[in-house]
Amino acid sequence: LVFFLMTGKDRIIFATKEDHDTPSSAELVADDPDDPYEEQGLILPNGDINWNCPCLGGMASGPCGEQFKSAFSCFHYSTEEIKGSDCVDQFRAMQECMQKYPDLYPQEDEEEEKEKSSKDLEANTMEASVAKEEKGSS
Asked: DSSP string spanning 3-36?
C-alpha cells in the first residue's frame, strides 16, 4: 500500500516493507539547464532571485515567507548608495512577523548572547590553562 499526501510544497509518501523490498523502477531524467527551479544558486542567469535555492533555508516559505521575499527583493534590487537603505520598512515587517513565531524563527536576545559569549570565553580560558599545565608537566 503506497499513497501520497501533499502538504504545501512537501510530499509525504507512505510505503510498506514489500515496497522497499522491490527494486525501484524510477528513471533518472537529465537536468534541464533552463529550469529556473533547479539549484542554480541564489541568483538565476536572468538576474531574478531563485526562491527555491536551498541557500535560503526555506525562508521564502512559511508564515513569514511573503515578508521575507518583500525585504530580500527590495535589498536585491536596491539602487541606493547604501544598498538596502530604502528597505527598512520591509525588514521591519519581516522581523515583526518572525517575532510572532519564535518556535520557527528563534532569536537570541542580548542577554543570552552575552551569557553564551562569557561561557565560551571561560571554556577557552580553562582549555588554555589545562594545556599550559600539561605542557609544563612533561
From this structure: EEEEETTEEEEE--HHHHHSPP--------TT-T
φ and ψ at residue 14, rounded to 5 degrees: -105, 135
Rounded CA-CA distance 30/28 in Å is 7
Q: Which domains does the chain have, with CATH numbers?
A: 57-106 (1.10.287.2900)
What is the pTM assigned to this prediction? Answer: 0.52
The three cell numbers of residue 6 are 501533499
Q: How far is 47 from 20, CA to CA, in rounded Å?
A: 42
SS3 107: coil
**Residue 58 above 70 pLDDT?**
yes
Q: What is the mean pLDDT of the chain?
A: 73
Q: What is the pLDDT of residue 11?
A: 55
Q: Read off the pLDDT band of 120 (50, 70, 90).
A: low
CA dist 104 → 7, 54, 68, 70, 87 (Å): 17, 17, 14, 19, 23
Q: How far apart are CA 138 and CA 99, in angstroms?
A: 54
Cell numbers linked to 80: 541606493
